[in-house]
User: What shape does this take?
Amino acid sequence: MKPVNDYREEAMSAIVALVMLGDGSLTDDDLNILSRNPEEAKKYSERLSEIYNVMFRSFFHFAAEGLGLIPENRVTKKYGRSITDNYPEANEVFLRFAQTYWSLRVLTYDLIKYDMEWIGAHLLAKLEQDIGPVFFPFPGKVKIAPPMREKTQRELIKESGAKIDIEEFMRGNPILIRDNNNLREERSGQIYGGIISRALWGLLFVGVLIIVIWSLLTRFLPMGWWITLINILGFLGTGLVIGMGTWQTLKMVIPSGYALLISIIIWLMMVVGPRTVILGLLGG
Assistant: This one.
């Protein structure tokens, strides 16, 4: 583990680099403020807000060039794989952005772990929290819906004035690609589920209609060989529509064996239950 002072020096250098690249400047008084305890931040809120705004805009200029706030091997060592390995489908525009972000992420992680009790560390942590959920979502309190994420990314990149090809960034953004694929799958699942649901209700409706006609015929026709024929046709008709139809529909979403068992249960319940009720109402 590095000495605590090394983490602070590294972080302070990152802040200075961000501010200087953003055409800002830090006086000795500013550096002194950044080194103070976070409890004193309110006294310097106006100046800290100015510094942070420069840091935020400058981050995108860093990202346009793929500049890291710490050495790249620190990121690889932390997560066990390089940025390129982690985003194999990404293009160069996105990879440069990712390199800058994950260097910030590792830097703030180390600060949180070893040396967080100074204002500058809190500014870096805020920067990471303002960037991360928008561009690199991960579990946490701040979550942005996928459709809003692309819109927000476009706005932030444009407002920063950084030389980032927005369309190229979006085309090679693996997180947006995954989001869009997941949305398509989700919508397809909803459409598919709706079709299955309507098909099942349609089958049950036709089945009930057959049961009603079957019950009426057996109740009001005089006794004869045709009653036996009607009963046979009733069983076959409901078996074909309710039993077979339900099985063919359900096995598209669950294993065939389970679908068959459920279909038989539904068929028997429909034949025995509604038919018994109808015949009872008809006085049969």
